[in-house]
């Protein structure tokens, strides 16, 4: 009969367990939530007045971001907690057009429709202008919102200096929102917790 020394069995067993432990540890450390969640800043000015978005309908309840998140276009890009200059993006390829549609606005290259009216470029010599990250662009609706974008939408008769001033009023805190645990994040969009990591590591 083949005799296997006890010591060898023990060493093999320990190596095996150490291997499993290593594997679990690597999975634990490497785990990243693949939920998308980032932020951008913006403002809309009409005839020199900043849109306040002071109605609760412009904001998503955290509770509304639930299991059916992917089927609800509103869950993809929106505002929270009456903070009217931060866009929360919860999915890939969300455009500025999507975001404004979620607010009930229509955004084209020459037209902006809000809850207050229809603002068309060229009417009464007024112009619709977009400044994205310090650069004037002619079209914004189909642009994917990028993390830490700063967007000004301006309608009216505005000088370059006024546009710049309005652009500068936009609080740039998207980076801060990206870093901190966002209390208004939809479920599952926050950084993974210890329990999340542990479950993932064990393959649960
Ligand atoms: Zn957020
Ligand atoms: Zn959200």
Describe the structure.
Helices cover 27% and strands 20% of the residues. The protein is of the alpha+beta class and 204 residues long. It has 2 domains: 6-33 and 191-201; 38-179, no CATH class. Bound molecules: zinc ion (2 copies).
In short, what is this structure?
This protein has 204 residues and is α+β, with helices and mostly antiparallel strands. It has helices at 6-30, 96-102, 160-168, 174-179, 194-201; strands at residues 38-46, 49-50, 77-78, 86-89, 106-107, 111-113, 118-120, 127-132, 135-137, 150-156. One zinc ion is lined by residues 37, 39, 88, 177, 182, 184-185.
| Share of residues in helices | 25-40%
Main beta sheet strand tally, sense and closure:
7 strands, mixed
Low-confidence stretches: none
How many discrete structural domains?
A: 2
Note the overall shape.
Answer: rod-shaped
Number of helices: 5
The sequence of SSEs as H and E is HEEEEHEEEEEEHHH
Bound molecules: zinc ion
Helix-and-strand structural type: alpha+beta
What is the radius of gyration computed over CA atoms, rounded to a whole number of angstroms? 25 Å
- From the N-terminal CA to the C-terminal CA, the straight-line distance is 42 Å
On the 0 to 100 scale, the average pLDDT is 87
Compute the number of strand runs.
10
| β-strand amount | 15-25%
